[in-house]
Amino acid sequence: MIALLLAQTIAVTGATVYPVSGPKLANATVLIKDGKIAAVGAHVPIPADATRIDARGTWVTPGLIDGAGQMGLVEITMVSGTREGTVKGDTIAAAFNVAEGINPGSTLIPVTRMEGVTSTLAVPSGNLVSGQAVLIDLDGATIEQMLVKSPVGIVADLSESGKESAGGSRAAAAARLRRVFRDALEYERRQADYSRAQIEPLGASAADLAALLPVLHGREPLIARANRRSDLETALRLAKEFNLKLILAGAAEGWEIAGEIARAGVSVLVEPMNNIPSYDGLGIRLENAALLAQAGVHLALLETDTHNARNLRQQAGNAVSYGLSWDQALRAVTLTPAEIFGVADRYGSLEPGKVANIVVWSGDPFEFTTRVEHVLIRGRAVPLRSRQTELFERYKKLPPSY
Amino acid sequence: MRHAPALLLALTSACATGAAHPATPATPAPAPPPAATPAPSGERPQYPSTYQRHPNPPVVIRNATILTATGREIANGAIAFKDGRIVAVGTQVDAPAGAVVVDGTGKFVTPGVIDDHSHIGVYAAPGTEAESDGNEATTPVTAEVWAEHSFWPQDPQIPLAIAGGVTTIQALPGSANLIGGRSAVLKLVPARTVQEMKFPGARYGLKMACGENPKRVYGTHGGPSTRMGNMAGYRNAFILADGYRRKWDKWNTDHQGDPPERNLRLESLAEVLRGNILVQMHCYRADEMAQMLDLGHEFGFQIRSFHHAVEAYKIADLLAKEGTAVTLWADWWGFKEEAMDGIPENAALNQQAGGRPLLHSDDPKGIQRLNQEAAKAMYAGQRAGIPIPRDQAVRWITANPAWVLGLDSIVGTLEPGKMADVVLWSGDPFSVYTKAVQVYNDGWLVYDRSDPRHQPHSDFELGQTLAPGSDR
What we know:
The complex is a heterodimer.
Chain A: H1 2-6, E1 9-17, E2 25-33, E3 36-41, E4 51-54, E5 59-62, E6 64-66, H2 108-113, E7 117-122, E8 129-137, H3 143-146, E9 147-157, H4 160-163, H5 170-189, H6 191-195, H7 206-216, E10 222-226, H8 229-242, E11 246-250, H9 258-263, E12 267-270, H10 288-294, E13 298-301, H11 312-321, H12 326-331, H13 335-340, E14 358-361, E15 372-377, E16 380-381, H14 387-395
Parallel strand pairs in A: 1-4, 1-5, 6-7, 9-10, 10-11, 11-12, 12-13
Antiparallel strand pairs in A: 1-2, 2-3, 5-14, 7-8, 8-9, 14-15, 15-16
Helix pairs in contact in A: 5-7, 5-8
Chain B: H1 14-17, E1 59-67, E2 73-82, E3 85-90, E4 100-103, E5 108-111, E6 113-118, H2 157-163, E7 166-171, E8 179-182, E9 184-187, E10 205-209, H3 212-218, H4 227-254, H5 264-273, E11 278-283, H6 286-299, E12 303-308, H7 316-322, E13 325-328, H8 346-352, E14 357-359, H9 370-383, H10 390-395, H11 399-404, E15 422-425, E16 436-441, E17 444-448
Parallel strand pairs in B: 1-4, 1-5, 6-7, 10-11, 11-12, 12-13, 13-14
Antiparallel strand pairs in B: 1-2, 2-3, 5-15, 7-9, 8-10, 15-16, 16-17
């Protein structure tokens, strides 16, 4: 194992490889060099100094990407001292980037990655504009080492939970966002006037307005939480008015307007197993993911419970159970989220040049019978150990030896 | 709700006749008074079940893999049931006259799934404050409240759970209180009233909670604010209950003078001391469970099951010795301090130690796929070198919760004479791709995935969406 950890060149051999970017390859090799994928195929020459992982009988996929949760931003949900995902007292927290809140030592990280999830979005919550989400790899001693992309986008909450920040009405929430967007553009045009205080008071702080500009210029997406059909349509309307690159998160009733979402070229993040009706989404149903995909929507699947982000594969399996094709589901937890978050040049598929985030599974990754055999993050085979495996080792024979 | 929390012998004829039997009276009924005198409240039927078995033609399912939950898995087997009772299970089964024959080729059959820890109906969807009826969080001991008096039969979560193969639930009060109140043990069938759902003859459970929740809720509202305060709270309550029980037991024997005054709170606790109500205790930490076992020893009651019990694996030997079940999640952890040490091998380790583990949902999404929760726990055990046979894992969501509810002689396994709570699955119930295709509750085809006429919907759902889906 030590040799494996230090190896610069690793060859995963004999597996059924699912590159996602192309058809599956039987009895194929994935060659990894210096943290990147060097070659994928049935006839890859293996350098003599390569460490070999005999993967016969296994399935090899890209590491799974969960576009939800607060990995690194929360240790114990109910202990506020361990939560970093929400900034209080700022309705428009556009300048709040969560990156420096991330704890690379979080016990959630090993628990998650040893089940095949190698990258997660760390998403701010609360307020009308929650802040900036970042994408991290689940390995690294420092925040800098973990970061894949910062920011990925700015999160706004157009669902029921967001409207309180805007005075208690959905109409007020939309109006407030519109005003803040206009003010950001005004601020950009008249920064000199702003500095001399020769301008009407604007709808947010200068830092928050400035942070919105990349979104308003289409360089970064707006990630809008919305579930009710009318809220999804509000998000689409705002995106059209301001020419935004929009990602819809949640989208409980997305299936009802799947065609409209597809035509707008908007991406959607869906949690497949969520089907409990509320007034924020009475139409929520288990076929949501399948119906959106059928309409041609660019779709990624989520597990929103940070502590159990490892259940992303169960979410995907259940999406398949309710009509999504298996290939679509695999893409929706690998390459599609990489595309949606703007990192598909480096992540999401097994292709030469991409970052070597790779999982070796004993079988179908979505099945409960399947175990994770190896996880490589940036070409490093991470140990399949966590605080949970250590608790198991301590207590598997009672009484424990302390 | 993370933030929340023996059957009468007379029952034996209940399924055969479909007759409803009154639930356990809160206090043993004394001799009937003279006819002219109106009976005092305590001597009248106490909120009886009006459950009636729904008529259904006899059914035989053939060519299926049958997981009986008795330790026996039958390949290419058959099961027949009639008038709400299982009449035959095996490889050679005669169809009852007039039976509907169901081809189970490639499919699996299990007993109806039982969730011994649910808050559906008391924390109903759509999840508004108006529907939040699970925690009487006004004072730490509320043994006087009964979950059935909060339960809303039109909760749209009920049909979702039925489609997941669930046939019986224990709806519990939440875990804000030290003693949260009585549970409702219910047949999961569409009904207008909770009385029509009450499992005939089932004993009540008493929800108790240790640890963080009560001390958090009451810490700034008069206490308890510590775990030691929690413990004093249970003990004070049971000391009062002990005196109350003795007073009533004496009067019930000698009928001297006026009967003692009724006290609703103490009635529930006295029934625990008499062994007629089963203690269902929310508890996470191993050391705290050991404290609660001592509490039971002090007052002479057994804790039927520790619910959540994320650290049960640390004292699996002790729990097995005490005969207390552990009601677990497959993998929930970390949402609060006392849940930090959850591990996926918890159920398997308790099984290995000779204990009685089972899976619960505590969640309206989880209740729809308890088979998947059992699958995760089973395979976590196998990966750790603790082999769990498939039929054993079925017991984690059928026979073991039946035992926790005191209903194991009636439901929870597929054996002749048992109530015909039967689920037909599209395949191996431990595959992520498998779904319940037919659900029979007491012999009634209450759900059929291929037939919209057998897909119940609550009143709440009517007219709410453009095109309600089959799985909503």
